[in-house]
């Protein structure tokens, strides 16, 4: 655990989370959610939870973003808010 | 109106939580080794005695697959049920729904398919490595399964779902999802036949050839149940992608 | 003051992320956006658990080094036996050989005996991060993606039935159906 790195990633997480919720293009929002998940994975690796970070890198940043994109592709891409 | 109400609710929850985590007397700080969670005898037992009980250096894998074996088994069942539920919700027959996505007759891109042809075997070997080395390095059945499932998803993205289904058909995927749970429960039952508790793998050293001690039997028992977890996770991830990307037709693709 | 901030900063960010996720779940109009908010909420709680598991500055990841050979009682015993076979004049190896054998029959009542100087080293609890929250969260992540897939499947079904994913339009259509 390195506190400076911890602060940096934590401060990057908030804009990523806000971006994932605020972008109206749902495809871009899915990608922003992937970025958020990957930052979370970095944070957990930094805090010593390597297994959790590995799972999040495979699941959160990889597969769940793909699921979201697949759904957006089969439904509507624009969101009203 | 609704948004203002939502804002008030969220603000109140946040205020309460801020008060809770900032309270120095009641809430231990970040990285405090004497906090109740870290100083509990259970957590300390997992750190000091895992290597003695099961010869596994990775404590997370040992706790996941041995000490909390029931938990992991039923998490696997949850994943299986989620896959079946998605199947029940969106699966339709091939003929009566419109094609989702682009033109099916499009030729897949040469650069992408060539890259994937090189990449997919590497990903699958890496998934097996992650599974097999889950005891001594980060990894295990869940991660290996997701990576293995991702390799099939990559095939489905680069070509189309029919190509991926040619390698791993829908029926095989459902069968593998069930097979994983059967493998997991089978290791539990194997220890019951020797008079031990369900999922107490230590006794299986009488069953496995070349394993001389109960500790090593636990080591290999964990590997066995991780293989079961990997079967379920791989096939459920692939099934979910296939159903979601084609609106349940299981043909065509993005 | 600086120490106070350092010991609380993770938890403050966890609360903010949880607020963002909760707000997304309640206030957003689009169902996909609601699901993204739910995932943000979920990862915020996982962040809380992982932050609880962190120990002091010099704690390591919860994996024993060198494949655990330094700590494994049987490996140490085998090593000691091997040492005796090759160099029988080394008297320390005899001690290492006998102690694990005796200790393996110990009950939990004599737990303190393993902290003696002889025999295999025992991992110190303060040197490793707490593995228990990691295990709980690892399974939570994978189950989380399976349930996210289920939620996405249901929203696809809703889109197929009603042709929209916006909450207000959906409510209007459902009410119109009820009136007829």
In brief:
The complex is a heterotrimer of chains A (81), B (254) and C (180). Chain A has 81 residues and is mainly alpha-helical.
How would you describe the overall organization of this protein?
Chain A has helices at 3-22, 26-46, 50-74. Chain A is mostly helical. Chain A has one domain (3-74). Chain A is flat. The N and C termini of chain A lie far apart (38 Å). The mean pLDDT of chain A is 89. Chain B is mostly helical. Chain B has one domain (57-93, 108-254). Helix content of chain B is 69%, strand content 0%. Chain B has ten helices and no strands. Chain B has helices at 2-22, 36-39, 41-54, 59-67, 69-90, 110-132, 141-158, 161-167, 170-193, 214-245. In chain B, helix 5 packs parallel to helix 10. The longest helix of chain B is centred in the C-terminal third of the chain and has 32 residues, at 214-245. Chain B is globular, with a radius of gyration of 23 Å. The two termini of chain B are 39 Å apart. The relative contact order of chain B is 0.15. The model of chain B has no long low-confidence stretch (mean pLDDT 86). Chain C has 180 residues and is mostly helical. Chain C has two domains: 2-62 and 128-179, Helix Hairpins (Orthogonal Bundle), CATH 1.10.287; 66-122, no CATH class. Helices cover 67% and strands 0% of the residues of chain C. Chain C has six helices and no strands. In chain C, helix 2 (31-53) runs antiparallel to helix 5 (131-162). The longest helix of chain C has 32 residues, at 131-162. At the B-C interface, helix 1, helix 3, helix 4, helix 5 and helix 10 of B face helix 1, helix 2, helix 3 and helix 5 of C.
């Amino acid at each position: 655990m390195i506190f400076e790195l911890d602060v940096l990633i934590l401060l990057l997480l908030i804009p990523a989370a806000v971006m994932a919720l605020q972008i109206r293009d749902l495809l871009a929002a899915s990608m922003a959610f992937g970025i958020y998940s990957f930052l979370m994975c970095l944070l957990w690796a930094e805090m010593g939870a390597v297994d959790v970070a590995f799972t999040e890198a495979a699941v959160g940043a990889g597969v769940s973003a793909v699921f979201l994109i697949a759904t957006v592709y089969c439904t509507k891409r624009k969101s009203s808010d | 109106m609704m948004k203002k109400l939502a804002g008030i609710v969220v603000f109140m929850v946040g205020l309460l939580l801020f008060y809770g985590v900032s309270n120095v007397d009641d809430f231990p700080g970040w990285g405090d080794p004497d906090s109740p969670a870290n100083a509990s005898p259970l957590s300390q037992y997992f750190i000091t005695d895992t290597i003695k009980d099961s010869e596994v250096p990775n404590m997370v894998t040992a706790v996941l697959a041995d000490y909390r074996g029931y938990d992991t088994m039923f998490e696997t069942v949850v994943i299986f049920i989620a896959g079946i539920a998605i199947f029940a919700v969106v699966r339709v027959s091939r003929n009566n729904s419109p094609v989702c996505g682009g033109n099916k007759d499009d030729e897949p891109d040469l650069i992408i398919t060539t890259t994937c042809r090189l990449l997919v075997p590497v990903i699958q070997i890496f998934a097996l490595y992650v599974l097999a080395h889950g005891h001594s390095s980060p990894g295990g059945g869940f991660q290996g399964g997701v990576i293995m499932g991702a390799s099939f998803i990559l095939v489905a993205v680069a070509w189309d779902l029919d190509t991926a289904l040619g390698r791993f058909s829908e029926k095989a995927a459902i069968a593998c999802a069930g097979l994983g749970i059967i493998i997991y429960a089978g290791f539990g039952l194997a220890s019951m036949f020797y008079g031990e508790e369900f999922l107490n793998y230590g006794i299986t050293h009488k069953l496995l050839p070349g394993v001389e001690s109960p500790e090593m039997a636990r080591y290999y028992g964990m590997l066995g149940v991780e293989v079961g977890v990997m079967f379920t996770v791989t096939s459920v991830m692939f099934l979910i992608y296939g159903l979601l990307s084609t609106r349940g037709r299981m043909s065509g693709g993005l | 003051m600086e120490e106070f901030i350092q010991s609380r900063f993770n938890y403050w960010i966890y609360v903010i992320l949880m607020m963002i996720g909760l707000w997304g779940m309640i206030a957003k109009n689009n169902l996909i956006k609601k699901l993204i908010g739910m995932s943000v909420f979920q990862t915020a709680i996982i962040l809380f658990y992982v932050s609880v598991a962190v120990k002091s500055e010099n704690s390591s990841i919860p994996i024993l080094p060198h494949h655990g050979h330094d700590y494994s009682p049987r490996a140490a015993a085998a090593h000691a036996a091997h040492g005796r076979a090759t160099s029988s004049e080394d008297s320390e190896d005899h001690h290492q050989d006998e102690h694990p054998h005796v200790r393996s029959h110990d009950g939990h009542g004599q737990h303190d005996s393993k902290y003696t100087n002889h025999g295999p080293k025992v991992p110190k609890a303060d040197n490793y991060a707490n593995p228990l929250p990691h295990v709980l969260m690892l399974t939570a992540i994978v189950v989380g993606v399976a349930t996210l897939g289920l939620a996405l499947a249901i929203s696809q079904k809703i889109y197929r039935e009603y042709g929209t994913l916006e909450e207000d339009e959906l409510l209007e259509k459902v009410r119109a159906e009820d009136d007829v």
